[in-house]
Amino acid sequence: MSEDVGAEGGVEGGAESGAAGVTVAELQKRLADFAAARDWGQYHTPKNLAAALSVEAGELVEIFQWLTPEESARIMAEPESAHRVTDEVADVLAYLLQFCTVLGVDPLAALAAKIERNERRFPVPGDAGE
Protein backbone atom coordinates (compact mmCIF):
# COMPACT_ATOMS: atom_id res chain seq x y z
CA MET A 1 0.00 0.00 0.00
CA SER A 2 1.21 3.50 -0.68
CA GLU A 3 1.79 6.22 1.86
CA ASP A 4 -0.65 9.12 2.25
CA VAL A 5 2.18 11.38 1.08
CA GLY A 6 1.98 9.59 -2.28
CA ALA A 7 1.51 11.97 -5.17
CA GLU A 8 3.03 15.42 -5.16
CA GLY A 9 3.12 18.55 -7.36
CA GLY A 10 0.84 20.44 -9.77
CA VAL A 11 -0.89 23.71 -10.60
CA GLU A 12 -3.73 24.80 -12.91
CA GLY A 13 -6.95 22.97 -13.59
CA GLY A 14 -10.66 23.50 -13.68
CA ALA A 15 -12.79 25.43 -11.26
CA GLU A 16 -15.32 22.70 -10.51
CA SER A 17 -15.76 21.94 -6.82
CA GLY A 18 -15.97 18.45 -5.41
CA ALA A 19 -17.95 17.26 -2.42
CA ALA A 20 -15.36 18.79 -0.11
CA GLY A 21 -15.87 22.21 -1.72
CA VAL A 22 -12.33 22.14 -3.11
CA THR A 23 -11.56 22.88 -6.75
CA VAL A 24 -9.23 20.92 -8.99
CA ALA A 25 -6.99 23.99 -9.22
CA GLU A 26 -6.80 24.22 -5.42
CA LEU A 27 -5.85 20.57 -5.14
CA GLN A 28 -3.20 20.98 -7.82
CA LYS A 29 -1.75 23.97 -5.99
CA ARG A 30 -1.63 22.06 -2.70
CA LEU A 31 0.15 19.19 -4.43
CA ALA A 32 2.62 21.60 -6.05
CA ASP A 33 3.30 23.35 -2.75
CA PHE A 34 3.79 20.01 -1.02
CA ALA A 35 6.31 18.87 -3.62
CA ALA A 36 8.12 22.21 -3.77
CA ALA A 37 8.58 22.33 0.01
CA ARG A 38 10.37 18.97 -0.21
CA ASP A 39 12.30 19.72 -3.43
CA TRP A 40 10.52 16.86 -5.18
CA GLY A 41 9.71 18.80 -8.36
CA GLN A 42 12.90 17.50 -9.95
CA TYR A 43 11.37 14.01 -9.97
CA HIS A 44 8.08 15.10 -11.53
CA THR A 45 8.82 14.33 -15.14
CA PRO A 46 5.99 13.08 -17.36
CA LYS A 47 7.63 9.64 -17.44
CA ASN A 48 7.96 9.38 -13.66
CA LEU A 49 4.45 10.64 -13.01
CA ALA A 50 2.96 8.29 -15.62
CA ALA A 51 4.81 5.37 -14.00
CA ALA A 52 3.66 6.39 -10.52
CA LEU A 53 0.08 6.73 -11.79
CA SER A 54 0.27 3.23 -13.23
CA VAL A 55 1.62 1.81 -9.96
CA GLU A 56 -1.16 3.43 -7.93
CA ALA A 57 -3.82 2.26 -10.40
CA GLY A 58 -2.36 -1.24 -10.02
CA GLU A 59 -2.70 -0.99 -6.25
CA LEU A 60 -6.37 -0.11 -6.73
CA VAL A 61 -6.85 -3.08 -9.06
CA GLU A 62 -5.10 -5.34 -6.55
CA ILE A 63 -7.85 -4.70 -3.99
CA PHE A 64 -10.42 -6.15 -6.40
CA GLN A 65 -8.23 -8.79 -8.06
CA TRP A 66 -9.71 -11.95 -6.56
CA LEU A 67 -13.14 -10.69 -5.52
CA THR A 68 -16.30 -11.99 -7.10
CA PRO A 69 -18.49 -9.42 -8.87
CA GLU A 70 -20.82 -9.52 -5.86
CA GLU A 71 -17.99 -8.97 -3.37
CA SER A 72 -16.61 -6.09 -5.42
CA ALA A 73 -20.05 -4.43 -5.47
CA ARG A 74 -20.13 -4.53 -1.64
CA ILE A 75 -16.53 -3.37 -1.06
CA MET A 76 -17.48 0.01 0.41
CA ALA A 77 -19.75 -1.58 3.05
CA GLU A 78 -16.74 -2.78 5.04
CA PRO A 79 -14.87 0.15 6.68
CA GLU A 80 -11.34 -1.22 6.28
CA SER A 81 -11.85 -2.09 2.61
CA ALA A 82 -13.59 1.22 1.98
CA HIS A 83 -10.61 3.05 3.50
CA ARG A 84 -8.16 1.15 1.27
CA VAL A 85 -10.20 1.92 -1.86
CA THR A 86 -10.53 5.59 -0.92
CA ASP A 87 -6.79 5.91 -0.28
CA GLU A 88 -5.89 4.35 -3.62
CA VAL A 89 -8.41 6.52 -5.47
CA ALA A 90 -6.77 9.55 -3.85
CA ASP A 91 -3.30 8.39 -4.90
CA VAL A 92 -4.42 7.78 -8.50
CA LEU A 93 -6.12 11.17 -8.68
CA ALA A 94 -3.16 12.99 -7.12
CA TYR A 95 -0.71 11.56 -9.64
CA LEU A 96 -3.12 12.19 -12.53
CA LEU A 97 -3.52 15.84 -11.49
CA GLN A 98 0.24 16.26 -11.21
CA PHE A 99 0.75 14.63 -14.60
CA CYS A 100 -1.78 17.04 -16.13
CA THR A 101 -0.05 20.00 -14.52
CA VAL A 102 3.39 19.05 -15.82
CA LEU A 103 2.04 18.64 -19.37
CA GLY A 104 -0.34 21.61 -19.26
CA VAL A 105 -3.48 19.51 -19.68
CA ASP A 106 -6.71 20.85 -18.19
CA PRO A 107 -8.19 17.57 -16.86
CA LEU A 108 -11.79 18.78 -16.78
CA ALA A 109 -11.63 20.20 -20.32
CA ALA A 110 -9.95 17.01 -21.54
CA LEU A 111 -12.68 14.85 -20.00
CA ALA A 112 -15.50 17.05 -21.31
CA ALA A 113 -14.03 16.90 -24.83
CA LYS A 114 -13.63 13.12 -24.61
CA ILE A 115 -17.24 12.65 -23.47
CA GLU A 116 -18.43 14.78 -26.40
CA ARG A 117 -16.37 12.71 -28.86
CA ASN A 118 -17.74 9.48 -27.38
CA GLU A 119 -21.32 10.76 -27.56
CA ARG A 120 -20.83 11.35 -31.30
CA ARG A 121 -18.91 8.11 -31.80
CA PHE A 122 -21.40 5.94 -29.89
CA PRO A 123 -24.89 7.43 -30.40
CA VAL A 124 -27.82 6.14 -28.40
CA PRO A 125 -29.61 3.48 -30.47
CA GLY A 126 -32.83 4.86 -31.90
CA ASP A 127 -31.85 8.53 -31.56
CA ALA A 128 -32.27 10.75 -34.62
CA GLY A 129 -29.06 11.33 -36.53
CA GLU A 130 -27.79 7.74 -36.30
From TrEMBL:
Q: Does the keyword Ribonucleoprotein apply?
A: no
**Keywords, ordered alphabetically:** Hydrolase
A GO MF annotation of the entry reads:
nucleoside triphosphate diphosphatase activity
User: What's a BP term from Gene Ontology annotated to this protein?
Assistant: nucleoside triphosphate catabolic process
- Keyword check for Hydrolase: yes
List the InterPro entries. Answer: dCTP_Pyrophosphatase (IPR052555), DCTPP (IPR025984)
Query: Pfam families, alphabetically?
Result: MazG-like
The entry's protein name is Nucleotide pyrophosphohydrolase
> What is the originating organism of this protein?
Streptomyces coryli
